[in-house]
Amino acid sequence: MHRAKLAVAALALAATAGGVTSAAAFGTTADQKADGVIVVAGNTCTWTNARTSANPPSALTVDRTSINRPGGNLACDGGITATLNNNPAFTFDDAGATARTDLIDITGQQSFISCRYKAANITWDRDGTSRKYVNRAFTATKASGSFLCPGSVTTAAGGASMLFH
User: Fold this and answer.
1) Residue 138 CB neighbours (<10 A)
2) Could you give the 3-state DSSP secondary structure of residue 72?
3) What is the mean pLDDT of each run of 10 residues along the chain (165 residues)?
């Protein structure tokens, strides 16, 4: 149970994302921020107002220090803590209504068990004309951690979203 929850926390952060406010339509002023939420196996991780280096459709990075505590407000239920280890880069294809993340590197911890996972080349589909993007299925591979950590964890399509505003 703890192993599954920890993997879920790591995977949750790996998704780096989720719309918890209404998305900005094309052509509106944006504030270079992103909100996130993901639900995996009944566990939810959320944050708001993460800083980004630009506004979509320009290529951008998401600042991990504005997600991770103490500078950010990342919170997970189920007694899990999570930390983003990199600043994920996003590129956008407006004509194709997609976005791509280069790499997500995250660590999840519950009690004394810590698991680090990496997922590369995650594809996201835009929700209508908004700047909300919903993930396609992806698998994060264990990079380090306890022998109790699964070798990989998968997020189903639609299990995460990214809202740029």
Assistant:
1) 23
2) coil
3) 52 45 50 85 83 97 96 92 94 98 92 93 96 94 95 90 95
Question: How many other CB atoms are there within 10 angstroms of residue 129's CB atom?
Answer: 12
Contact 160, 140 (CB under 8 A): no
How far is residue 11's CA from residue 32's CA, in Å, rounded to a whole number?
A: 24
Do 76 and 9 touch, CB atoms closer than 8 A?
Answer: yes
**What tokens appear for 51 in the block?**
């800083």
Query: What whole-number distance in Å separates Cα of residue 105 and Cα of residue 52?
Result: 17
Residue with tokens 């399509």, as numbered in its chain: 157
- Phi/psi region, residue 97 (left: phi>0; alpha: psi -120 to 50; beta: rest), is left
